[in-house]
Design brief:
The structure is a homodimer of 178-residue chains.
Chain A (H helix, E strand, L loop, with lengths): L3 E2 L6 H4 L5 E7 L2 E7 L2 E5 L4 E5 L5 H9 L1 E6 L5 H8 L8 H4 L4 E2 L8 E2 L4 E9 L3 H4 L1 E11 L9 E5 L2 E10 L6
Antiparallel strand pairs in A: 1-10, 2-3, 2-6, 4-5, 5-10, 6-9, 7-8, 9-10, 11-12
Chain lengths: 178, 178
């Protein structure tokens, strides 16, 4: 596998720009993928990520049962698969098979990495106090992987109703911020 | 003012792509601006937004005191002001004056709108249960404004250490999603 371990202290830089992500889960031999845009960083290190996983999704059940998932970050090259996963339910199909995505074993969790995504964040559920009211999970990233060949990932950013903004140019400004 | 009222049911499309935002607050004649990237949609309608406002920030005190703020969405044209506000503390200066930003009265809250931002979301704090542990606020957007002249806003997306991705091209894919 071409991916390299990525420092947990830098994970925020992958999620802060707000990319659409694909959350993979697995339980008792069944795996699933959910497309998600409602996530935010909550702490730098250990990296905490807050996200909404609706209880109408099959991934909600797998996440609650296992308390584990992988956040996979796709780019424009697989935009059709990203939308496909977002429009189908894993209760009725194997999304890896249906959308020709490749599951790869993770190192710390049972949920698989999606090979076609340029970055993968192995996560454990850290807090479920806001699940009942908002379906809001706090995840801790415990292991991160990145494809070092991808320099300017053309991440997808949902604008509603199938419209996506694709990551454009990068600019550098003088800043004291992390 | 050139801005038009914007339907609350469409607010998610402004925040889902993950833009850097500027949070304005005001209390007892003092106002402030905080640059923020750690936010997520939590519900479509009424629109709920979860966000982290560190208790090391002056904005935390104003937000806790008033339970109101405005989320303002800037674009590349004012990137220097966005970074400037992120690197300074409002405890020691008036950021509107320092960074030549124009406060405009909001309709539902005391906190001012930032005129130079293409969209403004007037918010009330809806839930503070996660503030002690994570400085995480749940906000309800109660009024939204947008500049109808801005068609493809070149929003900023933080990549860490002063690097920003600028919103690029938009693509349209067939989708059943909101």
């Amino acid at each position: 596998m071409a991916k390299k371990s990525f420092p947990l202290s830098k994970v925020y830089a992958l999620l802060e720009p707000g990319p659409v992500v694909m959350v993979s889960t697995a339980s008792r031999g069944r795996s699933n993928i959910m497309t998600m845009s409602w996530h935010t960083m909550m702490e730098f290190e250990p990296p905490l990520v807050g996200c909404v996983v609706s209880n109408r999704n099959y991934s909600f059940d797998l996440l609650m049962a296992t308390k584990e998932c992988v956040i996979n970050i796709p780019t424009k090259e697989i935009a059709d698969k990203v939308v496909g996963c977002g429009n189908a339910s894993g209760a009725k199909m194997d999304k890896f098979e249906t959308f020709s995505l490749t599951p790869k074993p993770a190192s710390q969790v049972e949920a698989p990495l999606i090979k076609e995504c340029y970055a993968n964040l192995e996560c454990r559920v850290a807090d479920t106090n806001m699940v009942d009211e908002y379906c809001f999970f706090v995840l801790e990233v415990i292991k991160a992987w990145i494809d070092p060949r991808v320099k300017d990932p053309r991440t997808l950013h949902h604008l509603g109703k199938g419209n996506f903004m694709v990551a454009g140019e990068s600019i550098k400004l003088k800043s004291k911020m992390k």
